[in-house]
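Hello again, I could really use a second opinion on something today. I've been staring at a protein lately and its backbone has me curious. You're getting the sequence in one-letter code plus the fold written as tokens. I'd be grateful if you could look everything over and explain what you see. No rush at all, and the record is pasted right below:
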Amino acid sequence: MSGPRRAMVHGPRRGAIAAVVLLALLTVVGTSVAPASAFTVSAHVTPNVIRFGAPATVRGSTSLMAAGTQVRVQRRLDATTWSTRAVGTVAADGTFAVAISPTSVGIYALRAVTTVGTSPVFYLRVLGPLRIDPGGLQTLRLGMTVAQAKSTHWVTGTTGGCEFDVGAMGATFPAGIKASGEFQGGKLAWVAVNSGGSSVEGLKVGAPQGTIYSIFPGPTYKVGIVPGSEDQFGVRLYTVEKASKQIYGVTVSLSTGHITQIAAPYTPICD
């Protein structure tokens, strides 16, 4: 009696079977994890124009909805070098929001980097501190035309001005920048800073009104109160003069006694 017969596979037939098995394995494994290049990452920064010292947030999403995936926000330093500025994680729905705090003035080229891909480059413009001087606000200078003002990126456009000033146009500023201004006769006539603002001499919005006298002492400066401003406008208006020329107008809240606005060269009143 002969023993059990074994089936032996030789030559081309054995190679064909091995290929089928390998294909089956690749099919099973391949359907569970796609290559990283198959995923997409998108990102942007809001707001995309800020003053120095203000925060911004990088928001975006990845097509891989894997909660906890790390997100690195990087700034481009040169053509080939990137520096990580903030780190966050992806939420369960694939989105992310990472706060960043720029450390210098200028234009930031940014990207969001994850383990599954990198977003296209996007940009953040960081303007100077909200610090006013007798001639204007940082690079935004009194006397500038609308086009010149917009080129500084402090002004984004115009809106309706005071109805009593013929041809006046209000200046609009990037979202989050608490400033205002007006063009009269096509030129920037005044500019003012509100929340977060200060003068180059050190007068701060939010400070007690008494600091006006300490920051601007006589005889170099002359500080006065506009007669009737409390009854007529519901605020106390101060003027600051130097060499017999007004350089600032300061608005003070009657209820708190604190500074609410600093304007150069005068406080804008439309009545």
Notes: The helical segments are 11-30, 146-151, 211-215, 229-233. The chain has two domains: 38-127, 131-264. The domain at 38-127 is CATH 2.60.40.10 (Immunoglobulin-like).
